[in-house]
Design goal:
By secondary structure, the chain is mainly beta. The protein has 5 helices and 28 strands.
Length: 428
């Protein structure tokens, strides 16, 4: 092959990639097979040709006859995307793509875009919100993400004592303990730090294929799973072997936006993820094949947790709702509606198989027990609700170990409370 045809193929591939990534960024999150807004799926060429409630979205070769193009103009009604306006260059890119036949290049779509380098400055010492709370598998230690540090605390003592600090130099986005408690993984921006939990020493830094913040981490069998995001575009899974920390594979675009939380079921068979795309997804933990996608929230889904017996999964989001789902038939079991606004539900943790502690941006912490089964359009309280003493600042995280509840706020304060919500200890 001569250089000229090779160059032409390269330019053609780039030309296909630009409009497809534009569709991915602006359209996919509302027009997936699960959501189908307006009956339209936009994640394949065949789906665009089939169209939705108003007919085909594109007519290849004829941009003037393609609603996909027509709805992008500033005075279009309805207008797409609904909350923004594409630039003239972006509109021209999509128009040319349709004019040239709307070629769908799956490889170009799946390929990671070239990302600019981002110089990282050291996080200011004064910036210390509690971003993560994770109890070790044997319930003996608590890992706390505060600003750019992972602080470790001994839970065996009556008073909570700091036993070490793992410095990351950048804001801690996520933390996960290995099942044997010997390794701690902490996520930052395009980096995952691995630590020896006993020696308090850094083992390695993982960087392969990471695009943005490592917003969630979990250990699943012999695999470390990381949630990596391009906000507003996609959330992806990146996988490493825990045997030698070698790169395994990736699943790009498993969500249409940032993945905020991951959890593995107590039996290790299922992995759950929640996202800003408003969806809860359940995966086979071994193969990462999708089992079920649920859209039950009207806003970002920020947190999730399996019940101790693994039969239920609770989710909370910025729609101020807490929902509990059956892991047997995927039905909504409990809808824990609040009697007054709480702002976003930032975190939750199970007390036992029929009780939760929930924290929110309004500084409120509340306990839900004796959960009432959800029926139809029911929006009542959904269980017995008990309010804990209100915190003066926004609460960000909650964790439970034995008879103690740990809550963290957006200013870096960590509080220890008893089961009734009474403050036992405060660590600034």
């Amino acid at each position: 092959m001569t250089r000229l045809p090779l160059l032409w193929l390269l330019l053609a591939g780039l030309a296909q990639a630009e409009p497809l990534r534009l569709l991915q960024k602006e359209c996919f999150r509302c027009h997936t097979p699960e959501k189908r807004k307006g009956g339209l799926v936009m994640t394949s060429r065949a789906a665009l040709l089939k169209g939705g409630d108003s007919g085909p979205a594109i007519v290849p070769g004829h941009p003037a006859k393609s609603p996909l193009v027509g709805l992008l103009t500033e005075d279009a009604d309805p207008h797409m995307p609904p909350k923004g306006q594409l630039t003239p260059t972006e509109i021209a890119s999509l128009r040319d793509w349709v004019k040239q036949g709307a070629v769908w290049n799956e490889a170009a779509l799946a390929a990671a875009p070239t990302l600019p380098g981002v110089p990282l400055a050291r996080t200011p010492a004064s910036y210390r919100p509690v971003t993560v709370l994770q109890v070790s598998p044997d319930r003996s230690s608590l890992a706390v993400g505060r600003g750019a540090d992972v602080d470790l605390f001994d839970l065996k003592a009556k008073e909570l004592n700091r036993t070490g600090t793992l410095p990351m130099e950048e804001v801690v986005q996520s933390i996960a303990w290995s099942p044997d408690g010997k390794i701690i993984a902490s996520g930052g921006f395009r980096r995952i730090f691995l630590w020896d939990a006993i020696a308090r020493e850094r083992i390695a830094i993982l960087t392969e294929h990471l695009e943005g913040k490592v917003t969630a981490l979990c250990f699943s069998g012999d695999t470390l799973v990381a949630a990596d995001d391009l906000p507003g575009q996609r959330g992806s899974f990146r996988l490493w072997s825990t045997k030698d920390w070698s790169w395994k594979t990736e699943k790009p675009g498993v969500h249409g936006d940032t993945i905020y939380d991951l959890a593995v079921s107590p039996d290790g068979k299922r992995l759950a993820s929640v996202s800003a795309d408003k969806q809860l997804k359940i995966w086979n933990a071994a193969s990462l094949d999708l089992i079920k996608a649920i859209e039950g929230h009207t806003g970002f889904v920020l947190t999730l947790a399996f019940s101790p017996n693994g039969q239920k999964l609770a989710t909370g989001g910025d729609d101020e709702q807490v929902k509990v789902w059956s892991m047997e038939n995927w039905k909504l079991l409990h809808n824990l509606a609040e009697s007054r606004p709480t702002r976003a539900i930032t975190d939750l943790a199970w007390l036992h198989d029929d009780g939760l502690v929930v924290v929110a941006e309004d500084g409120g912490a509340r306990e839900w027990t004796k959960l009432v089964p959800h029926e139809g359009g029911q929006t009542s309280a959904g269980g017995t609700r008990r309010e804990f003493p209100k915190h003066p600042r926004s609460l960000t995280q909650v964790a439970i170990a034995e008879t103690r509840v740990f809550v963290g706020d957006d200013q870096g304060t960590l509080e220890v409370r008893d089961p009734n919500g009474k403050a036992l200890q405060k660590l600034p």
